[in-house]
Design brief:
473 residues; alpha/beta; Purple Acid Phosphatase, chain A, domain 2; 13 helices; globular; binds manganese (II) ion
Length: 473
């Protein structure tokens, strides 16, 4: 048997923080992979990101060329072949270029019409390693929905003709349904599942082992962190409660890492990769607190987290994502942002981020003008959120929380009444994400109540009780 390493969405050389050296991290990442002695490395797209450097501006030709040298060196130093699929953040030209400079790097795009044609080029043919046939899906994110569907069907038909072999489909597409034209239908997932022994899809930056319940259709996580998100690559979740820092457990919903594929059994193992600059989320209730208390408590929080996390494993610095809940009272969001920014600047190796600034390549914690209508007009925000109830339902659906849009609307109205202020992203387009997160945060309470009173099937009354408990804290 042999192992093949599968990586995805490294987005070289985009990094979320100016101090986060993506190339160094990439080098460390590859060294970890090599410990398993894989016979090849497969890249499931978005190996590169043409858009940004870690200085926050679009990558120039000169910069790209400079980065190409260390990347080529890392690839060549592995002494095993690499095979890459095209992602939506990179140009074909970049992958062609790397395949010219690194002799063990190959960019492939299987042509389902010519898979058996002796005249087809190596570039178009499926890759065969240890009797396993890898199909590199030539399906681009920018193509329309219908084209994608047709192409997937073509690959399925081609694989059906060589069904006696082991067939693996490699993709870089929106697979999870998020709207009418985003993601693929369950029927298509089923078709893929039937025609391939394994379907591996990058792009989604999440790790799902059974797409639509089909256990051979897998979403491969982003191997390394690229953006900051409430779930992406988090190592730990904390909560500050009763003046104490409490761990809420590790969140591996969107971990970073790579897969190892056993070519005999086609079994997959996931191996996490921990960033040198990981993020933790910190749930903090501001109800009945003044600025002095908030400042003191946050100093304590930052010191505690620093002691607990920095220095362990490879961790050199830390990003804290505050998730503020509760009632602001007479405080203003920008006043809190101000305090967090001061602490963030004073404490080396710790960065407190404003989640609205998911990409830290631009300075974080921009302070909103206190008279900014977007940020202070809660009525408008709630009205807009109500309009997005359907999107919230879909978002929750992905978290395996099943609610109807009427229920979500009732919850949003309840939030408004309880004054759960949306001072993160509230004016932004991601409000649906935030509303879904609030519901998610309430779920432990929800489950607790459900456990004690399992006969209570009225979801709204359970959520009401959850809110009461949450508000009482
Ligand atoms: Mn992508």
């Amino acid at each position: 048997m042999s192992n093949i390493a599968i990586i995805a969405d490294t987005h070289l050389i985009h990094a979320y923080h100016p101090d986060y050296n993506k190339i160094d991290e990439f080098s460390r990442f590859i060294t970890e992979i090599l410990k398993h002695q894989p016979v090849a490395i497969l890249v499931l797209g978005d190996f590169f990101d043409k858009k940004f450097t870690n200085k926050g501006h679009p990558i120039s030709h000169v910069e790209g060329s400079k980065q190409q040298i260390p990347i080529t060196e890392i690839i060549e130093s592995t002494n095993i072949p690499w095979y890459a699929l095209l992602g939506n953040h990179e140009d074909e030209a970049i992958l062609h270029l790397i395949s010219k400079t690194a002799k063990n790097f190959h960019f492939l795009m299987t042509n389902p019409k010519r898979y058996a044609d002796p005249a087809a080029s190596k570039f178009e043919k499926p890759l065969i390693i240890d009797g396993v046939r890898f199909w590199f899906g030539n399906i681009q994110e920018k193509e329309n929905h219908r084209t994608k569907e047709l192409k997937i069907k073509e690959y399925c038909q081609a694989a059906a003709k060589v069904a006696k072999d082991k067939n693996i489909m490699l993709l870089h597409i929106d697979m999870v349904r998020r709207g009418e034209d985003v993601g693929i239908s369950k029927e298509l997932v089923e078709l893929l599942s039937k025609n391939f022994n394994l379907v591996l899809n990058g792009h989604e930056h999440t790790y799902i082992t059974k797409v639509d319940g089909f256990n051979n259709v897998i979403l491969v996580p982003a191997s390394m962190p690229t953006w900051i998100g409430i779930r992406e690559g988090l190592i730990e979740k904390y909560e500050y409660i009763d003046r104490k820092l409490k761990k809420k457990g590790a969140n591996l919903q969107e971990p970073h890492g790579y897969l190892l594929l056993d070519t005999d059994t086609l079994k997959i193992g996931f191996i996490p990769f921990l960033s040198t600059m990981p993020a933790v989320s910190l749930l903090y209730d501001v109800t009945d607190k003044d600025l002095v208390i908030i400042e003191n408590e946050w100093r304590k929080i930052v010191e505690n987290l620093k002691q607990q996390i920095i220095g362990k494993q490879n961790i050199k610095s830390l990003i804290i994502i505050p998730i503020l809940t509760g009632n602001l009272g007479s405080l203003l969001p920008f006043e809190i942002n101000n305090i967090l920014e001061v602490i963030s600047n004073e404490v080396p190796d710790v960065q407190i981020v404003d989640i609205r600034k998911k990409d830290l390549t631009t300075p974080s914690l921009d302070i909103e003008a206190p008279d900014g209508t977007e940020i202070l007009n809660l009525d408008g925000v709630f009205a807009r959120t109500l309009e997005q109830a359907e999107d919230i339902v879909k978002r929750l659906d992905q978290m395996k929380i099943f609610l109807l849009s009427d229920q979500v609307k009732k919850i949003i109205n309840k939030m408004r009444k309880e004054d759960h202020n949306f001072f993160f992203e509230k004016g932004a387009k991601n409000i649906k994400v935030y509303a879904a997160d609030i519901i998610n945060i309430l779920l432990p309470e929800f489950n607790e109540i459900l456990k004690k009173d399992w006969k209570n099937t009225d979801i709204i009354s359970i959520i009401d009780s959850s809110f009461e408990k949450e508000v009482r804290k």
